[in-house]
């Protein structure tokens, strides 16, 4: 815990990144309950020292401790999936990480938007807006990761969708509007491409 605080030098985001890495490394090849207890004992105090609510800190750790089953080089979940599909382990593991990459943002939402935990503020329109924008941002991050909307996204459309979804996570109105505009523009262009492809086939 002290190491995370010292290395991050009080930088909130850097402390979360370091905790993220520690959770992934310590969570490899260990049963879920054991990995959560071990990582929580070692890392949770560091986050609490930085004034992160205890429940948000523990959910952050718990989430990443479980996601360590997806990440190479151990990736127990990917190993099981590769065995069932009779596919290459590393290709399966990296594909799993790619498909689940949007989910790696969720623990950060717990910390930066405690309203999602429904216990730190009254349930009001602000809470509802936070929940809706979080769901939308994760959905479009997933779309950017799999590179598909109405049809395959171009590189520019993919970047617009990815950046727009990240801007929604910031949860500030002026920045969120820019995010919505980027996503809407990317999807509008992609829809036009999809319609033109349909006309060519016809």
**Helical proportion, percent range:** over 70%
> Nearest-angstrom radius of gyration?
19 Å
Shape: globular
- How confident overall, as mean pLDDT? 85
Helical region count?
10
Number of domains: 2
Give the number of DSSP strands: 0
Write the H/E string, N to C: HHHHHHHHHH
Organism: marine sediment metagenome
Domain TRAP C4-dicarboxylate transport system permease DctM subunit: 2-118
Keywords: Membrane, Transmembrane, Transmembrane helix
Pfam families: DctM
Which features does this protein show?
202 residues, mainly alpha, TRAP C4-dicarboxylate transport system permease DctM subunit domain-containing protein
Architecture overview:
The chain is an all-alpha fold and 202 residues long. It folds into 2 domains: 112 residues, no CATH class; 88 residues, no CATH class. The protein has 10 helices and no strands. The longest helix has 29 residues. The radius of gyration is 19 Å and the shape is globular. It starts with a helix and ends with a helix. 31% of the residues are buried.
In short, what is this structure?
Residues 2-118 form the TRAP C4-dicarboxylate transport system permease DctM subunit domain. It is built from 10 helices and no strands. The protein has 202 residues and is mainly alpha-helical.
Topology record:
Elements lengths: L1 H7 L3 H15 L5 H18 L4 H14 L8 H10 L3 H12 L5 H7 L12 H22 L8 H16 L2 H29 L1
